[in-house]
Amino acid sequence: MKVLVIGGGAREHALCRSLSLDPEVTSLHCAPGNAGIAEVAELHPVDALDGAAVADLAASLGADFVIVGPEAPLVAGVADAVRERGIDCFGPSREAAALEGSKAFAKDVMASSGVPTARSYVCTTPEEIDVALDAFGAPYVVKDDGLAAGKGVVVTGDLATARAHALACVGAPPRPSGPRGRVVIEEFLDGPEVSLFAVTDGETVVPLQPAQDFKRALDADEGPNTGGMGAYSPLPWADPTLVDEVERTVLQPTVDELRRRGTPFAGLLYAGLAITSRGVRVIEFNARFGDPETQVVLARLRTPLAGLLRAAATGQLAGFPALRWSEGAAVTVVIASYNYPDTPRTGDPITGLAEVAEKDEHVYVLHAGTRAADDGRIVSAGGRVLSVTATGSDLAKARERAYRAVDRIELEGGHHRTDIAAKAAEG
Predict the structure, then answer these.
(1) Is 422 buried (19+), middle (13-18) or exposed (0-12) by CB count in 10 A?
(2) For the whole prediction, is pTM greater than 0.90?
(3) Does 358 lie in the same domain as 259?
């Protein structure tokens, strides 16, 4: 099988790494990719948001299967353009991807399907914003309706900060991800958060193993919100019935509702969950693999990835064998650029990568924001630069290996959290 992956972050590196180990994959390509992905796949320059260009590339390569990684191309309809050329593609349609592209749409789907979520208001005016903020009180949860690269949500106890973010959202310029000028304000959900992915063909739902990520930039969940600073899996503290419950009350009803509406969702359905005192509640849906949770989930998946994703893309999940998982654990620690998540500095050399690869077979480094400089050095090219991923017999061992590797990597001005999976590893 000749496979083309669209994207260039650590999520796509994790996908490409798993695909490169799959005996069904005879040729692996990625567009545009990054310096790390280049070690396992042939890279091709392409505008990932240009559906015609992506479809042309897939056709020119003779690709049998295309996997669209990031959310923006999915919301832009890139998967539709590929399928229109008669090429199998993993990723929901433009219409179904609105589940992530518009939080207001997602709330409507959840209301129609009875999926438990936070009470919310969709606001378009300053007056509506004030009513909503007053109705829920602090902590305030304010969400940009459209795509915002994981940084459109503000959770704060300060009314002025919440109101300022809400006003910025309704005054934002038009985007392809959703209508202009909408913001979702909702009640705060208590309890730990869980990420649960499910592969679906629009009818059958196959949940993966849950993970937990860390959104805040600094230890102890301090600092600004980010795209994610680390993750771990499994969750030793979670109820063993959690996955079954979420499949029954969240995932399957959502897939059924979208099919009922005539916009079936085939691809990766990501449920961001809060385990509250009142039970499981959906925080948000995403229409693709999450980053950095993908790094730890795929590190534990033993079922070959290509066949699983293609079964979803071709409507054949009902007969797919049960997934196989390692009994151990995985931990990912993200190394970020200086000044991330504000205006990250790029172009800084990265050293120590070869040493990490040589020291421990249970550790590998997934590239996010990197590029190869003219002199051959690997340099930073984004906010989140690397995902250092380790496996072990348990979380404590995986965590120890991950941080030992992080200490070997040098990135001037780079920073990382030191508490990823710490509490879970303690039992």
Answers:
(1) middle
(2) yes
(3) no
